[in-house]
Amino acid sequence: MTRSYSIRTYGCQMNVHDSERMAGLLESAGYARAEDPTEADVVVFNTCAVRENADNKLYGNLGHLAPAKAANPNMQIAVGGCLAQKDRDTITRRAPWVDVVFGTHNVGSLPALLERARHNATAEVEILESLEVFPSTLPARRESAYAGWVSISVGCNNTCTFCIVPALRGKERDRRPGDVLAEVQALAADGVLEVTLLGQNVNAYGSEFGDRGAFASLLRACGGVEGLERVRFTSPHPRDFTSDVIAAMAETPNVCHQLHMPLQSGSDRVLRAMRRSYRSSRFLGILEEVRASIPDAAVSTDIIVGFPGETEEDFAETLAVVREARFSQAFTFQYSQRPGTPAADLPDQLPKAVVQERYERLVALQEEISWAENRRVEGREVEVLVSTGEGRKDGATRRMSGRARDGRLVHFAPGRDGIRPGDVVTVTIDYGAPHHLVSDGGVHTHRRTRAGDAHEAGTRPGGAPTGLGLPGFGKPQAAVPAATGCGAS
Length: 489
Ligand code: SF4
Hints:
Helices cover about 35% and strands about 20% of the residues. It is of the alpha/beta class. It has a seven-stranded mixed sheet with strand order 21-22-19-18-15-20-23. Strands 2-1-3-4-5-6 form a six-stranded parallel sheet, sandwiched between helices. Strand 5, helix 5 and strand 6 (about 125) form a beta-alpha-beta unit. Helix 7 packs parallel to helix 8 (about 215-220). The protein starts with a strand and ends in a 32-residue tail after the last helix. Iron/sulfur cluster binds near residues 156, 166 and 489.
């Protein structure tokens, strides 16, 4: 009897991609995706530990599953990801109906641990301190026919004081460039048009094998991959952003003119306390260099408000950098104390009301800027990679959605039938809204692609059948919005 599974994913893209590996592993072990996740024989939680309420969310969900597990003893519950790496057997103590706990370094052990727990009728907790195998060597069941995640490194060598990632994902480990390129080529050969290179700190790529120019070389090498139309990457660290990377972005046609670069704070005093190893002038200097080489680049960022000890003057400096940087988008967070991070023990933790009030001022300023930056795109013709779904029904207008090359979300009136997710169209932008662009004039060109064929046929790269879009899978119920790295970096 084939056992079914369902995966619930929380957190960043690294977790979304890890979930694709967990699904690939389970299917290689003979499990099938549950049509109805509430009916699954095996429920896997791929957890995040970045935000304060991440714990509450996990234990709340585990509590909800207890009656279902009591009613169906054959059901198994597994908890993986960053919170599992942090909490370990605390999870089985607080939720003794959990069968398996595995960490960020041993994703590959999931099927064996499930079998062992079932055979021995005891909970299996296996947490490793360092990487067992590079997750990219594991089978994957990919979410999309037209866009793919490619992990180039795991872990991080930085020690930002608010961040728990190094403690949970370990020191940076880099994949060999040849392995990365082989995966990118295989995806493109399967019709994938867009890849996103993933790492906690992508532009530090190569530090493990002593090649500081490795990331720029990798971007240029992706430029030579046949059929690959779009290359994105997340997340870079301002300290490691070097001119060769900017030149590679500007000179490699399929590298998208989109850059997500976390600022975190505009105050040098706060950046020092965060141990971010750059200052606001350097950050703005990088933006200037990027915009000199890539004038149409869309730049987004992450900002934390209310870091311990942040004064009104510090916050004013953050607002000043935001005004000058003109980000197309900013993911803004209220600082939350994370046990196990150095910042959690800092004096001068700010009152919630102060943090909330500053947060609202920052969001209002950035909303104004995002809107103005999107209005500048009005009248421009843009290329859109059509994404899943029929878009929004808005009165008389039926719209579809997709991403422009600079990462902006576009809702467009197709004006003709036969356009599928995975196809490529060009449209003229009529209106720039604060968080998306709108085109109502119908598409100018429509290119049917192999990715569109695959989406229509329900196949995925690597030949896997579809069945995705299950709640919680692929759509991060995130502590952090989709576009960022770990909300850290
Ligand atoms: S914030 Fe990013 S760069 Fe800093 S320690 Fe965390 S993952 Fe590393």
